[in-house]
Amino acid sequence: EPVEPVSFNRRFVMRDGSVRTWMNLQNPEVVRAAGPIDPEINLLMVRGSGQSRALLSNFALHLDTVGGMKWSADYPYHLGKLVEAKLGPGSVSLFGTGCCGDINHANPAKRERNTADRIGQILGTAIVDEMYFIPAGAYAVSEILPPGNDITSVRMCIATGTFAWPDAPGWTVK
């Protein structure tokens, strides 16, 4: 079953050529969204001693679904709970917001807005369903050895196809 999108461009080109924010698609003056969204979820998995230890995920969507004057971890909290449950005890889920200047959770075709738990569930499910299927040739795997640390090696899968570690004294990359 297709999953409903969770991110939308909040700016729209109008018939008169202007660009306006927070328009509903039922408005006859709306021509189109003013720009694209980034639908990709980027992942970085950290493995050690044969186990997945941490996962960094990145998605372009503002963290403002809760709103008001409340402090909140927003949808990454719900996403993280799913990821950590899949990775197992002692694992960590980290989230980085992608470039999302005009990307928001309000679907301009609907009256109701996506909620933090719904967005976290949709993104988290997509991540846990795919995080162990690393296509051949799409990721680089490197062993990183920290200087004088108890950790013997950390295996990292990077979604760029290449891996370059910054010049850090004492670190070696194999």
Unreliable segments of 5+ consecutive residues: 134-174
How many β strands by DSSP? 11
Q: What summary fits the major beta sheet? A: 6 strands, mixed
Number of helices: 2
Shape call: elongated
> What's the Cα radius of gyration?
20 Å
Question: Roughly how much helix do the residues carry, as a percent range?
Answer: 10-25%
Structural class: alpha+beta
Task: Report on the architecture of this protein.
17% of the residues lie in helices and 29% in strands. The chain has 174 residues and is of the alpha+beta class. β5 (42-48) and β6 form a beta hairpin. α1 (74-87) packs parallel to α2 (116-130). The radius of gyration is 20 Å and the shape is elongated.
Name the features.
17% helix, alpha+beta, 2 helices
In short:
This protein has 174 residues and is α+β, with helices and mostly antiparallel strands. The chain is built from two helices and eleven strands, in the order ββββββαββαβββ.
Topology diagram in text:
Layout: E1 8-9, E2 11-14, E3 19-21, E4 30-33, E5 42-48, E6 51-59, H1 74-87, E7 92-97, E8 103-104, H2 116-130, E9 140-145, E10 154-158, E11 172-173
Parallel strand pairs: 6-7
Antiparallel strand pairs: 1-8, 2-3, 2-4, 5-6, 5-10, 9-10, 9-11
Helix pairs in contact: 1-2
